[in-house]
Amino acid sequence: KHTCRPIKTHVLSKLFYNNYYLLYFVLGCVLKPTTHEIVPAAVTILACCVQSPQLQLHSKVTHSNNTLGLDIGRFINHFQVNTHLDIDLNAVEHVALTDDMQLFHVDFMKNFADEREVLALLDLKSQQVVKVQHTGTIHAVPYWFVLHFPGCNNCKLSTFSGAYQGSHWRLAVVLLKEELYVKEGQDILISATCKDSCVSVSVQTLAV
Fold this sequence. Notes:
Number of strands: 13
Order of helices and strands: HHEEEEHHEEEHEEEEEE
Structural class: alpha+beta
Mean pLDDT: 77
Radius of gyration: 19 Å
Number of helices: 5
Shape: globular
């Protein structure tokens, strides 16, 4: 059994503030008084790159038609928020161009030496090279969570849309401001940050 000092509730609240559905789940779980185990014990954030013109259109604030003689659409769309919550990926036409990748992993049961290590969870960064599996255009990067539970082997729950029969989970999706054409076998660089609960993802091609 793990016996360690758990992460304080206010840190969990800030870490998952924007992801309110996960925050509700985490804070709604219990701290077992006998073993000091947090349920869930850890969370992994996964993502993949997808081609989806439908998602791209969904992200636009307004079309590019002129309004009163001014082309304001492209300016409004340029400054839009590019992260969308509550997306049912199964209801949107899309093609996964990469395999699933791990952006972050947070172990709530880790025995932190002091609170500074805990606060470091509010500023996570990752960078990895990913191989493209299918030729196409990357429009978006959906991400989701896998919750790990203590006390049993491989007990986990995925919040990926349709991960299991009866799943009601929806995804957060980061839309790229500029679509990116990629070819099968090509290496791309995925950079991700999670600062004060805000997840940001960027995709870049690598020089051959």
